[in-house]
Amino acid sequence: MVTHSKETKQSKPLPAPNSDFYDVRSTLSADEQDIVRQVREFAETKVAPVISKYWLEDTFPFELLPELQKLNVGGVAIEGYGGRGGSVALFGFIAMELARVDPSFATFFGVHNGLAMGSIYLGGSEEQKQKWLPPMIRLEKIGCFGLTEPQVGSGASGGLLTTAKREGDTWVLNGEKKWIGNSPWCDISIIWARDVEDNQVKGFIVENKTTPGFSVEKITDKMALKVVQNGHITLAGCRVPEANRLQLDRSFRDTARVLRVTRYGVAWMSTGAQMGAYEHALKYAQERMQFGRPIASFQMIQDLLAKMIENITACQCLATRMAQLHDEGKLTDAHASVAKAFCTARSRETVAWAREICGGNGISVDYGVGRFFADVEALYTYEGTYQMQNLIVGRAVTGLSAFVH
């Protein structure tokens, strides 16, 4: 029983934090809801107890991979090849549930399942899909996605400096990639390079540990997504067989198909980060006593909590509708960009309010919100900056491009 003051007592238990205010999970089928429940249980019982330690140490929890394998969530929304299948909404809810506990672990999963596997699923030949997707779905081989370069981020569509030159049945790759999640330890890198012959972007499956000329240096001293191991890849005369070129990819338009799906995923992850920060902040506010009362009973704290749940609910509903558009075959780049921009911007607000509610304790990892406060900064930027997403949307609504050529 919580005593508010000498005169007032709390007569009934306070509600447990619930960040699904509109019950959006109920839009999934019963089977998919059960999968989401299993993912939440895994995140809460396996990831949550250890993740702050790994975040502080800037290391990855490899011990969790066998437990993740047991969930059989590899290949969600991929039909065949041993994949879990299911709706695109299920993929989003899984990303949201993982990010609700740790955005870094959700990012690891998104890079592997969405970017790396998605590149092969969308751009690979049937032979390539048969070879690579089954072990990746089983998490026996982990992948990364090498697009961003030290000097090229937003301008990747027309300005990649990494080159690919064909020599018979071999392609020679030269260049660098930076901020590539999973790359310091994973097995497969999807490398995007500009073909010197036709000046078009093409994708290549590079086997990290056996390809001469391929090297990775871990990026250290990050302030966000510290559990994700990011790398700086160097390709120096890296020789890749024609059999490892993604056969259906001809230009950056094909790369953009993958980015559309992953921006969809970032919208869900940034929503999950809000959920986690909100729930930590609400629990803190219910328990933190000042002036003889829980601070959750103060008007200013309730105002912040209300604005947080409003942000979260808006993002959940937007992401759910986005999943419906995907299933209807109507999802465009602009739709994905609206979701990525809006959800990450709202996430910045929500986690900042969560840190504010926790006061000085909000900067400590021990109180839960500090990791979210830092990690959301990376989500706001990666897979295309906020401003770039708005230019994609602006082009769609005006019919005029504001991009500089």
TrEMBL record:
Obligatory cofactor(s): FAD
InterPro entries, sorted: ACX4-like (IPR045008), Acyl-CoA_DH_CS (IPR006089), Acyl-CoA_Oxase/DH_mid-dom (IPR006091), Acyl-CoA_Oxase/DH_mid-dom_sf (IPR046373), AcylCo_DH-like_C (IPR036250), AcylCo_DH/oxidase_C (IPR009075), AcylCoA_DH/ox_N (IPR013786), AcylCoA_DH/ox_N_sf (IPR037069)
Domain Acyl-CoA oxidase/dehydrogenase middle: 144-236
Protein name: Acyl-CoA dehydrogenase family protein
Record-annotated Acyl-CoA dehydrogenase/oxidase C-terminal domain positions: 257-397
Record domain Acyl-CoA dehydrogenase/oxidase N-terminal: where: 30-139
Keywords per UniProt: FAD, Flavoprotein, Oxidoreductase
Organism annotation: Pseudonocardia aurantiaca
Family to which the UniProt record says this protein belongs: Belongs to the acyl-CoA dehydrogenase family.
PANTHER family: ACYL-COA DEHYDROGENASE, ACYL-COENZYME A OXIDASE
